[in-house]
Amino acid sequence: MAADSTDLLTPLRDHDLRLIPLEESHRDALRTACAEDTDIWRIYASNFGPPDFDRNFTALLANPGRLGFAIMLGDRLVGMTAYLRIDLPGDTLEIGNTYIAPSERGTGLNRRVKRLMIEHAFACHFRRIEFRVDTRNERSQAAVLKLGAHREGLLRAERIIWTGHVRDTCLFGLLKSDWAPWTP
User: Fold this and answer.
1) Rounded distance, CA 10 to CA 5, Å?
2) What's the structural domain count of the chain?
3) Distance between CA 10 and CA 40 in Å, rounded?
4) Is 181 a member of any domain?
5) At residue 56, does pLDDT exceed 90?
6) CB distance 60 to 69 below 8 Å
7) Is 3 domain-assigned?
8) Is the dihedral of CA 77, 109, 172, 128 positive or negative?
9) Dihedral (C-alpha) 27, 29, 33, 35: value to the nearest 10 degrees?
């Protein structure tokens, strides 16, 4: 059966964790969460720290190729994530643009977020999920490997990020046959 993106952007839930479609009403809470770690934005393609947050948030919402989620823990917005590079003929998509507030890092939250997104993508008949990670972001590379993804290669000088840095990108792939669902 072919992949179907119709239901990709639907609320997802795991106990106190909710992924809800990112929208304008999340602007202020996400601005606050993103300002908690201004140093991290040096390794992201776009700067969501001050003073660039509003311009980049507006562009993010206007991008039809990005299906974004607000990461809610209880009633608190603690980050964002997205489905990207959705290729329906190839039954492939990317999970990325993930930011989690420093207070929630190392708690297992990222793994829970990715589990919801991966299981949902496979339920929508995608056969391959990609992760593209800046080579300088060792924490994210380790997290992706723990999900069962395979490091498939290096995309040299793949993009120029907002700082002017020419980024090398690690490409990871996850097939349904690689996926061993995590259980709490």
Assistant:
1) 10
2) 1
3) 28
4) no
5) yes
6) no
7) no
8) negative
9) 60
Specify if 154 maps to a domain.
Answer: no
| Domain-located, residue 102 | yes
Q: Residue 33 is part of a domain; what is its CATH number? A: 3.40.630.30
- Residue 73 CA to residue 57 CA, distance in Å, equals 20
Q: Which residues pair with 181 in a beta bridge?
A: none
Q: 28-50 pLDDT, tens per residue?
A: 999 999 999 999 999 999 999 99
**Vertex 24, ends 78 and 42: CA angle to 5°?**
50
- Picking from 96, 61, 103, the residue whose alpha carbon sits closest to that of residue 78 is 103
**Confidence band, pLDDT 50/70/90 cuts, at residue 19:** very high
117: containing domain: 12-129
Per-residue confidence (pLDDT) for residue 183, from 0 to 100: 43
- Paired with 175 in beta bridges are 128
- Does the pTM exceed 0.85? yes
Peptide bond into 11 cis (omega under 30): no
Residue with tokens 């700067």: 47
